[in-house]
């Protein structure tokens, strides 16, 4: 447990991101306290910390010894960090926290650039997001791909980055962070989440009930905490099964309840939604990035 690392590029990037977010959050908090609240700050900070813990804490040192730890690491990168960061309403906070000149000269033209807009149309498509999340999970758990990530430092980093990116893509249609506009039917999102549990459940069930070790590299690894390689694999499957089921189905049920709520209640919940309030904030502060 003493094996903590401080990867300088990642630590610096996350520290700067938190600094500019906090700067923008405090600026917005003074003018629009109902739009940006302490819970948004907590969510964003929790997401950034989740990324750092996944790659800089003892989890990173133990992932080659225990598949269980490897699974926790990937859950942090894909199922915890991305939704927490997006729930924190990062776009407006960062736009208000970054230097104004940088926003006007770099961010604005970049967001108005036609290829970026075209790419956004593709990567925020609900079907694309579902396949990106699902195929990333399944693909990296194919034994040959898994071994590549275990035995190559470069591919290991690519694996981490792909889980994080796929997590952002997967959660995009669910959370719809400002300034994105929902193009999906509201009832389709609970179905989207339910369908996403199926391949994950199949993979986790396979790992839990398989009578052999699927990833040979763990046969020769140190048996930390007294777990055999097969027991470690079974626990990894259980953790994935339970975690994904709760993480996906809780928001699915919450969305279903909201859809079944009386229209008046739904309207009051949406009154200060990210899209409406975000547009008001953008107009009020005259940050022209779109």
Describe the structure.
- With 290 residues, the chain is mostly helical.
- The chain has one domain.
- The chain is built from 14 helices and no strands.
- It has helices at residues 8-31, 38-56, 58-62, 67-87, 90-97, 100-112, 114-123, 126-140, 143-151, 153-175, 188-209, 229-260, 263-270, 274-285.
- Helix 8 (126-140) packs parallel to helix 11 (188-209) and helix 9 crosses helix 10.
- The longest helix is centred in the last third of the chain and has 32 residues, at 229-260.
- It is globular and about 55 Å long.
- The N and C termini lie far apart (46 Å).
In short:
This protein has 14 helices and no strands. The protein is mainly α. It is globular.
Spell out the key features of this protein.
single chain; 290 residues; 14 helices; 76% helix; globular
Could you state the order of secondary-structure elements as H and E? Answer: HHHHHHHHHHHHHH
Give the low-pLDDT segments: 265-278, 283-290
Strand percentage, roughly?
Answer: under 5%
Nearest-integer average pLDDT: 84
Q: Roughly how many Å apart are the termini?
A: 46 Å
Rg to the nearest angstrom? Answer: 20 Å
The global form is globular
Strand count: 0
Number of helices: 14
The portion of residues assigned to helices is over 70%
How many separate domains make up the residues? Answer: 1
The largest β sheet comes out as: none
Would you tell me the structural class of the helices and strands?
mainly alpha
List the helices and strands and how they pair.
Layout: H1 8-31, H2 38-56, H3 58-62, H4 67-87, H5 90-97, H6 100-112, H7 114-123, H8 126-140, H9 143-151, H10 153-175, H11 188-209, H12 229-260, H13 263-270, H14 274-285
Helix pairs in contact: 1-2, 1-5, 2-4, 4-10, 4-12, 8-10, 8-11, 9-10, 11-12
């Amino acid at each position: 447990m003493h094996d903590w690392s401080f990867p300088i590029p990642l630590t610096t990037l996350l520290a700067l991101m938190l600094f500019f977010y906090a700067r923008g959050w405090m600026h917005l908090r003074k003018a629009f306290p109902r739009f940006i609240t302490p819970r948004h700050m907590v969510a964003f900070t929790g997401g950034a910390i989740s990324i750092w813990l996944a790659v800089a804490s003892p989890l990173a040192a133990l992932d080659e010894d225990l598949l269980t730890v490897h699974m926790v690491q990937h859950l942090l990168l894909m199922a915890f960090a991305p939704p927490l960061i997006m729930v924190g309403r990062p776009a407006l906070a960062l736009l208000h926290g970054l230097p104004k000149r940088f926003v006007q000269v770099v961010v604005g033209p970049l967001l108005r650039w036609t290829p970026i807009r075209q790419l956004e149309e593709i990567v925020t498509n609900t079907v694309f997001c579902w396949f990106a999340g699902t195929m990333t999970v399944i693909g990296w758990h194919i034994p040959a791909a898994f071994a590549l990530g275990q035995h190559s430092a470069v591919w290991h980093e690519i694996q981490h980055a792909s889980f994080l990116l796929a997590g952002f893509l997967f959660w995009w249609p669910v959370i719809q962070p400002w300034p994105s506009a929902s193009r999906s039917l509201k009832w389709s999102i609970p179905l989207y989440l339910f369908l996403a549990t199926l391949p994950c459940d199949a993979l986790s069930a396979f790992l839990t009930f398989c009578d052999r070790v699927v990833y040979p590299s763990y046969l020769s690894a140190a048996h930390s905490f007294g777990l055999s390689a097969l027991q470690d694999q079974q626990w990894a499957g259980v953790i994935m099964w339970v975690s994904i089921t709760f993480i996906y189905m809780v928001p699915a049920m919450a969305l279903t309840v909201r859809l079944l709520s009386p229209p008046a209640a739904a309207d009051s919940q949406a009154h200060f939604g990210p899209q409406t309030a975000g547009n008001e904030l953008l107009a009020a502060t005259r940050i022209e990035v779109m």
